[in-house]
Amino acid sequence: MIEIYKHQFGLLSEVIARVKNRNYRFMIFIDDLSFEEHEVEYKFLKAVIEGGVETKPDNVLICATSNRRHLIQETWKDRNDMEFNGDVHRSDTMEEKLSLAARFGCAINYNNPDRKQYHDIVKGIASRCGDLGLTEEQLLLEANKWEIRHGGVSGRTAQQFINYLAGTVKQK
C-alpha cells in the first residue's frame, strides 16, 4: 500500500511508473480526498485514474476516502444551467466536477444510524473492551449524553465514546 497526499499528486505518474512492471499488486491510497471550488488538481487525478496516453497498469488499484459525496465542493450556482459569469453551459461544469467521483468504480456510503442502531454500535464496541464498569442501561444512557455533546449519532461518535470510557476505566 502506498499512501499519497493531495499535495503529492504531481508524483502520482512517477509512482505508478515505478511499480507498474513489478510482480506485486499495489494499492495507492488517498485519505480524506476532497477539493475546494478553486482547486483544479482533480483534473489531473481524473486523467491518472482513467489512464491518459498510458493506461493504468493492472497491478495498481487507486482507493480514496472522502467525507464528501462528490469530492469537489459544489455551490448553488453550479446547479443552474443559465448563463452566469460568462459560463453559458454551466451543466458541463457541474458534470465535470461530478465526474471525478464516477471514476472510482465503487462508492460506499455510511449514513447516520438511527438511535437503535447507534445503541447496537455502542454495545458492540463496548463488548470488545471488557468490563467498563457500567450496566447496559447505564452504558446507553451515557452514550446518549455523549452524542448530544459530540456531534450526534454515528459510528465515529460511538467509537470516541467507548475510547473515552475505556480510558477512564484504565485510570481508576
Structure description:
Helix content is 44%, strand content 7%. It is mostly helical and 172 residues long. Strands 1-2-3 form a 3-stranded parallel beta sheet, with no helix packed on it. α2 packs across α3 (90-103) and α4 (115-127) packs parallel to α6. The longest helix is centred in the C-terminal third of the chain and has 17 residues, at 155-171. The protein starts with a strand and ends with a helix.
Keywords, separated by commas or semicolons:
single chain; 172 residues; mainly alpha; three-stranded parallel β-sheet; 44% helix; 7% strand
Write a brief caption for the model.
The chain is mostly helical and 172 residues long. The protein has helices at residues 12-19, 41-50, 90-103, 115-127, 136-149, 155-171, and strands at residues 2-3, 26-30, 60-64.
